[in-house]
Design a protein that fits this description.
Layout (H helix, E strand, L loop, with lengths): L3 H21 L6 E6 L8 E3 L4 E3 L13 E5 L4 E11 L3 E10 L10 E6 L2 E2 L4 E3 L8 E10 L9 E8 L7 E13 H4 L5 H21 L1
Antiparallel strand pairs: 1-12, 2-5, 3-4, 4-12, 5-11, 6-10, 6-12, 7-8, 7-11, 9-10
Helix pairs in contact: 1-3
Keywords: Signal
InterPro entries: HpiC1, Ice-binding_C
Protein name: PEP-CTERM sorting domain-containing protein
């Protein structure tokens, strides 16, 4: 008859195997690579006027730092930024930022998104709810960059474009954040061998438990 010590050690070993297998199957966590409060003299290049930084205006307050970028649909308005030290890599990018609508004017029409080498990338999905006047909403863009993309290695940046429609429409832009999960991390999913290992460990724990009773 196996000793009590052996009966105790067997479940311990199997539990360790099970724990390792489960850890290997956990989804990868995202890394925050950009946390930009959108402030004056912080690398943003502005073209056109008025597209400038404000402390607060018209019922809309900054959500990060002490300023936000003011966007208006009069003339061609463009704001760009290149993220220092970051280049496009294969994986998933999740971009979030806050947009606000002024209380005294309709919400501005504009587009915003990641760039690679200055060229705007197309998101896989986008959530862009229009804020009611005097409120702020968070927009979310998600990008999937394939390992064979021709843009890999290009400098990563961001671009905001407000078309000239001759209308006095206004918006605020603030609190830009970018999370990234590399393609190699995304591949961490349960493979058949891992699932078989989990099954064996569970079966072993059940047998050991019955023998110990």
């Amino acid at each position: 008859m196996p000793s009590f010590r052996k009966l105790f050690q067997a479940p311990q070993r199997q539990a360790a195997v099970l724990g390792t297998a489960l850890l290997l199957s956990l989804p990868a966590s995202a890394s925050l690579i950009v946390n930009d409060p959108v402030q004056t003299n912080d690398g943003w290049a502005l073209t056109g006027n008025p597209i400038h930084f404000l402390l607060a205006c018209c019922g809309t307050a900054p959500t990060a730092g002490h300023q936000y970028l003011h966007i208006q649909n009069i003339g061609g308005r463009v704001a760009t930024k290149t993220f220092t030290g970051l280049s496009l890599a294969a994986g998933t990018y999740t971009v979030t930022f806050d947009v606000g609508s002024f209380v005294n004017a309709p919400f501005a029409e504009f587009t915003a998104g990641l760039t690679a080498g200055g060229d705007v990338l197309s998101p896989l999905s986008a959530s862009t709810p229009t804020p009611a006047q005097g409120t702020v909403r968070t927009w979310t863009l998600r990008y999937e960059i394939a390992s064979g993309s021709a843009d890999l290695g290009e400098s990563l940046g961001f671009r905001i474009t407000a078309p000239d429609n001759g209308l006095n429409r206004n918006a605020s832009f603030d609190n830009l954040r970018v999370d990234f999960v590399a393609a190699t991390q995304e591949s961490r999913v349960p493979e058949p061998a891992t699932l078989a290992l989990v099954g064996l460990a569970l079966a072993g724990l059940g047998i050991a438990g019955r023998r110990g009773r």
